[in-house]
Amino acid sequence: MSESNIIIQENGHVLTVTINRPNQLNALNRETILELHEALKSANQDENIGVVILTGSGEKAFVAGADIKEFANFKPSEGQELSAWGHEILFNYIEAMDKPVIAAINGFALGGGLELAMASHIRVASDNARMGLPEVSLGVIPGYGGTQRLTQLVGKGKAFEMIATAGMINADEALQWGLVNHVTTPEELIALAEKIAAKILKNSPNAIGAAIRAVNANFKDGLNGYDKEIEEFGRCFGTPEFVEGTTAFMEKRKAEFRK
Ligand code: HXC
């Protein structure tokens, strides 16, 4: 299936979503954000899908940010509305999905592009990738979660440096910082994401969803991550997947969670 700004490919239990505006370096306009939301929502509801891979089309960019041309004339209220809308339907939505999203960063991941990668659960990058939050060079600040998620991922000191300098780091620096998990060649990038997906797909979908909720809880205001872990841990015991996982261990065979 193909829509105007994204390409969707289903391969087994993996859905690959490619942002496809290469002439604008895959910048996120409202239409693209809406299409991404629809695709991710249906993936989240589809039992057949266990992992989503997000990437950008072309050799140059993952996503070069929010579409600057779209918001250049905005008033403060419109800026705030855009930010709140994006948080809700895309960035927070991805983070809270029941299945892991792997960002395969194939080039520039700037501003909203890096924020999209950071909202994903796992990041892998090609060795030509460049990452940054250049918003202060435009007179704004990161508005799709960057001030929070970059700080969570790399710590306050490095986050401040990246945000205040508006500078970019390369893939190896991102690996050193802990901003991405793995770096490979552009040719091997999707295969690497698929290899991680294949490992995830061997495990209990229910338990993976529970783990995402427990990990996220620590970063939410007013929630105690340890309490959430205890609650989600207990809930796993009532599932057929728990019976299958533990029975398979006792029977010295591999668990089968998927048809
Ligand atoms: C709209 C963009 C764009 C963007 C690139 N383009 N980034 N259009 N929004 N974020 C367009 C260019 O205008 C140009 O189209 C085409 O893509 C190719 O880009 P070039 O600039 O010609 O390429 P190059 O010289 O190689 O430079 C690459 C680049 C540069 C370094 C990545 O494009 C760049 O600095 N882009 C902006 C990066 C940025 O500031 N991102 C943060 C955005 S703010 P035309 O048609 O003009 O030739 C943000 C806020 C998030 O993300 C929060 C919102 C609530």
TrEMBL record:
Give the signal peptide range. none
Tell me yes or no: is Lyase among this UniProt entry's keywords.
yes
Q: Which UniProt keywords apply?
A: Lyase
- Keyword Lyase attached: yes
**Which residue ranges run through the membrane?**
none
Question: What InterPro entries does the entry give?
Answer: ClpP/crotonase-like_dom_sf (IPR029045), Enoyl-CoA_hyd/isom_CS (IPR018376), Enoyl-CoA_hydra/iso (IPR001753)
The source's domain of life comes to Bacteria
User: GO:BP terms for this protein?
Assistant: fatty acid beta-oxidation
Q: What family classification does the UniProt entry report for this protein? A: Belongs to the enoyl-CoA hydratase/isomerase family.
Q: What is this protein called?
A: Enoyl-CoA hydratase
> What's the source species' lineage?
Bacteria, Pseudomonadati, Bacteroidota, Flavobacteriia, Flavobacteriales
